[in-house]
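Table S2 (text version). Query chain:
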Amino acid sequence: MTLLSFLAFTALAAFLSFMLTRGEERESSDGFFLGGRSLTYPVIAGSLLLTNLSTEQMVGLNGAAFKDGLCVMAWEVVAVVALVLMALFFLPKFLKAGITTVPQFLENRFDVRTQALANMIFLAAYALILIPIILYSGAVGFMQMLDLRALTGITEPVNVLGTTVQPDTVILWGTVFMIGIMGSLYSRFGGLKTLAVLDTINGVGLLVGGFMIAAYALARVSGGGVLEGFRQLQAANPSHLNSIGGASTSVPFSTLFTGVALLNLFYWCTNQQIIQRTFGASSLAEGQKGVLLTGLLKLLGPIYLVLPGIIAYHLFAKDGITNDMAYGTLVREVLPSHLTGFFAAVMVGAILSSFNAALNSTSTLFSIGFYHHVINPRGSEEQVVRAAKVFVVCTAILAMLVAPLLAGQASIFAYLQDMNAIYFIPIFAVVLVGMLHPRVPASAAFAAMLLGIVMIAVKYFVPGVGPVVDRVFSYNFHFLGFVFATLVALMLVWGTLAPRAEPWKLETNTPIDMTPWKGAPVASLALLVAVFAIYASFASFGAAR
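Corresponding structure-token output:
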């Protein structure tokens, strides 16, 4: 029954996506990369949510909650602040410029050299960090949910080319390649609108399934009612239900105002994988509605991205399971078999969504930023799209080979945040200063981007440097705030002492209606008030660990 319901929902989502987008044009750059600039706000919100909610979130963030409790909801709730800024400040500028990629904006604002560096950074980060982590965390969650050892019958070591390989390793590699091949086919033959529609369908399933798991798990705690289960959970684990993170947690409260805020701002305002969905908006108003609706949905995130991890801690901590096993174990233990199959299908949809989004963004960066600039500047749009599709396959194969090598990380979510910071902080600093200060020259932006990457990489990878930096700044997130401030100061001083000859002006280069949504300010204020209320409701500074 589990396997049957999994296959049924997966096939249904694929069929509906095909039927709803079969007449869409995909051979031009706008058609393949931006869905013909025709996306409306429900599709944008659904796609943004599912692009974000892959298993590095479902498995990783619940795993972090298993260890640290409610304070890790910062990655969901603080994201709402970033989405408000995206809707009101960043999105109007990106859409006005009529761009397809963030590096294109940097070329517009600075020069080709800055664009090329940002393009190279994005490509390397997505191919070697982001996509392999999506595949690995997806495979781990899938293995736990469906108990693939029992389902496949692989319970003994296997001889592979003369080498004895453990059962879990064999299943991990097989699952990674299964997910990778499915995702590659979607991305290779789809285009942004097909992926966005598939995201929306799976988004509905994910929300339903996520709330369902929380309800079943709370009922398991109390042996009956959901509310009684929450009361018992809170009474038994008060420190795990505190929104204020202490010094021993992965998100101390003070870091919400430094590195945690900056990583959220980059992710939701300048991360190509995410914001490419908004570039396909049919109008500025539709884009703003989609972004702010995503913010509303993110406020619900702690219910299915954090609470299950806390419940898993309550139920299974004594069993010795690891952080990243917590969510899959909870799903398998509390859901009926037919619902487990449904939710596994939704999870695969979430994996494919993030995987496809990263592949689509990577192929966009390669074809628009590299192929069209360097390899074949006079190539037709059909050639550009063809090059993108070939690059999708190559990137997917590389990611499938790298993903299983991530096994053994203490926390896949913490590893992701550390690796992301290497390029998140420098690129966000350059984009922000470029928008705010029209006299900062291209040379300052290029230097700042390089300096930021070197500063963070030295801290992470040069032996002996990390512990010294941690003693000075207490937490890595404070160090990231220092790097950001340093880069901004460098560019501002450079722009004062050696400004560009003429101030930069953003020219309108878009076919869509740029009239803003009248309700955006009120909706934004309501979201910010809700963020404060959620934190205040669960805050206990005295109980922070």
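Notes on Table S2: The first strand starts at residue 158 and ends at 160. Residues 2-538 form a domain with the Sodium/glucose cotransporter fold (CATH 1.20.1730.10).
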